[in-house]
Amino acid sequence: MNSSLNAMEVAQMLNITKNTVYEMIKRGELPSYKIGRKIRVDKSDVENYINSQKNTFISNSMASFESTINMKPSSVKSGEIIISGQDIILDILCKMIESKTKNIRTYRSNIGSYNGLYDMYNNKVSMSSCHLWDSETDTYNTSFVKKLLPSIPCILINIAYRTQGFYVKRGNPKNIKNWNDLSRSGITMINREKGSGVRVLLDGKLNSFNISNTINGYKNEETSHLSVASCVARGGADVGIGNEKVSKQVDNIEFIPLQKERYDLVIKKTDLDNPVYKSIVYILSSKEFKDELEGLGGYDLKDTGKIVGQT
What we know:
- This protein is an alpha/beta fold.
- It folds into two domains: 4-130 and 139-158 and 268-310, D-Maltodextrin-Binding Protein, domain 2; 163-260, D-Maltodextrin-Binding Protein, domain 2 (3-Layer(aba) Sandwich).
- 33% of the residues lie in helices and 25% in strands.
- The protein contains eleven helices and 15 strands.
- The protein has helices at 7-14, 18-26, 43-53, 89-100, 113-121, 142-148, 197-208, 225-233, 244-247, 275-285, 287-296, and strands at residues 4-5, 33-35, 38-42, 58-59, 80-84, 105-109, 127-130, 133-134, 139-140, 154-169, 189-192, 221-222, 239-243, 253-268, 307-310.
- The strands form three sheets. Strands 4, 5, 6, 7, 10, 11, 12, 13, 14 and 15 form a ten-stranded mixed β-sheet that branches. A three-stranded antiparallel β-sheet has the order 1-3-2.
- Strand 8 and strand 9 (139-140) form a beta hairpin.
- The longest helix has 12 residues, at 89-100.
């Protein structure tokens, strides 16, 4: 039976507001139905929407998407800032950019870190968030930026640190504690899509521990932390991987911490002469931005706004 979601669950799955969900339903972009007086949306319809929107760009203006037009530009246009990434932090950043700069519209590209850097190389996005772990150096992001944006000098500004770990059912009935447990018989996992930071982390760990990727469920994919946690909560898998913050949003989920990741924003050095990008760098290091993130909870903000890497 298809899983049914309420408006708030859809909003969390898409990293948007509940009002935006209602607007999408009103415009016919998202199928829905009523149970009593409550609007419900099938999870499969949300997933179909996500798949249809890959590599399109969704406005995050202060009008809360009311004038959104899905776009697939060949390059970033003047007066636009397109930020690639999936964390709700980027919604806050977009809102602050629009409130503090004139004649700039911000857009979000809701794709994973690897594909975001690739699109940045091809000038399809202005900046990309990144949380890619390099198993060879046990470091985050810098080596991937060098590989995916060759000969393009960039700076990496820290947004936050997030804790990644396992989502298991409350009580951890299968006693899953570490990476090696994924290969145990009787364990089924739910994976993330290729190009996501979680998928890169998983594949790196499997390689480091010489674990075969023939794990039960390895080929079963979801496109967000929330979808992974929800799958585990309803018994679709025994374990998934995601960040700690999302685990607190899903009932019947327990979080097993494994690794703290560095979540950065990548900006081309050539863009830093542009007053708009100077304003963005200032926003990232501002007390106002940090206060907004502290209000969300679940993030380590010790280096927020600091340049933590260069290429």
